[in-house]
Amino acid sequence: MGTNASRSKNGACCRGTPRLWIFALHSAVVLVLLTAGTAVAQPVQAKHAQVELLSRQSAFTPGRNLLLGVHFVLENGWHIYWINPGDSGQPPVFKWQLPPGFTAGEIQWPRPQRLQSSSQVVDYGYHDEVLLAVPVRVSPTASTSAAAQITLDTKWLICREVCLPDHAQLHLSLPLAASAPSQNAAAATLFAAAAQRMPKPLPATWRTRFNARKDDLILVVETGKPITSGEFFPLDPDQIENASPQRLEPTPAGARITLKKSDLLTKEITRLRGVLVLASGNAYLVEAPVTRP
Amino acid sequence: MREQHHSRLVFVLALLLALTASAVAVRVGEPAPDFTSVDSNGKSQHLADYKGKYVVLEWHNQGCPYTKKHYESGNMQRLQKEWTAKGVVWFTVISSAPGTQGFVTPTQENDYVKRMGAAPTAVLMDPSGTLGHLYAAKTTPQMFIIDPSGTLIYDGAIDDHPTSDQADIATSKNYVSTALTQALAGKAVTEPATRPYGCSVKYAN
Fold first, then answer.
1. Cβ atoms of A27 and A107 closer than 8 Å
2. Contact call for B198 and A88, based on CB within 8 A
3. How many CA atoms, within 13 angstroms, populate the side-chain half-sphere of residue A236?
4. Domain that holds residue B157
5. Which CATH architecture has domain A201-291?
6. Which of A119, A159, A264 sits opposite B193 (nearest CB)?
7. pLDDT digits (tens, 9 = 90+) for B16-37
């Protein structure tokens, strides 16, 4: 509008035109990006959350795997759950509808937070925001028609003081790229942050084991340096009392973390799997045998 | 100063209560802790008075989606009718603190029972959470079964589908029915403890 006004005032017909052209071109480019490269889909407004299906790649290529993810942005105070939800709650469930030749893998669960709702109830989950990534295998013979239409039906439970079950159908259209697909810049930061929060395998020099006591399981971690704070999240339910405080004692070579055995343990366990989160925020996958005195 | 003293005392008492509660946490195979609780009709209910009968405790919160799953489908009412008809005593317990989800007055609860066609023996009003902490109840629903000798024989979930979908009930294994069927036939309960699922019990902080 400003351009038009100044143009008539100056009587210089051609000064404004290139700018208009640039504007039109720019809009066209934006439009093309929005319609063709819909790797960034519209977020869905759900109960106390925004939910969006994202792709790490901006296009797909037969024979090259994809990383998709659901980004939950939660209202302040609300949370959703980890794969082991703890004492109450329920983890999100994904049901994919994929083109032929596409196979979805398991959800990659970032390290959870401890959510204590009373002296007796501790849950494991996520506050604020979380990206639940899922690797998708794309076979070399996958359809090479124009775009891959991806649909995800997802159900989850969102809680603050109260819990609300919710669900959404999310869509994503990924164009076909003849060569290697480019990275989706808009989503890259989110996927990188989620990868940072993923539990990593234990470094080769570290040692872990569980010592069984009458009522407790003691996680012994040896890293070569004292550990002053850390927390263990069991991957399987019914093994430790979630609400029981974990006691960490630093040792010269690491730490000992005392976990109370679950009242629901009907037979002795021989192995325990879980995620160890250290003060740095780094998370490690622990799977170790339980030894008896 | 007084105020500070007071809050410290409350804190210490709360701590003691928490410690006591976890120390006496119930265990399947051991005597069920005795209690006296007032029901929604103002009647005092004493567990020991029901020696010789099976007693079911059902933790309840009418606003919780998991409780709704079993009431809006009629599943809980069916269980209550089936087992009370066989002589089982069924106590629904409400441990929601005032101001939290599921807290109701006795009148509101009686209206709810009538509206839903529920058929418990009585509804125990536990806004202080005393009974909830005594049994270490974590979720709604959570189910306990006490045998005629006063021994706890089941503690856990209502069934094996930890969801809030009514559609799952048809394909679920109901742990309460299974345990009661086995116990009434003089058999041992094959799954005496399971992980309860649902909303956290809304205790006072």
1. no
2. yes
3. 13
4. 26-200
5. Sandwich (2.60)
6. A264
7. 444 433 434 678 999 999 999 9
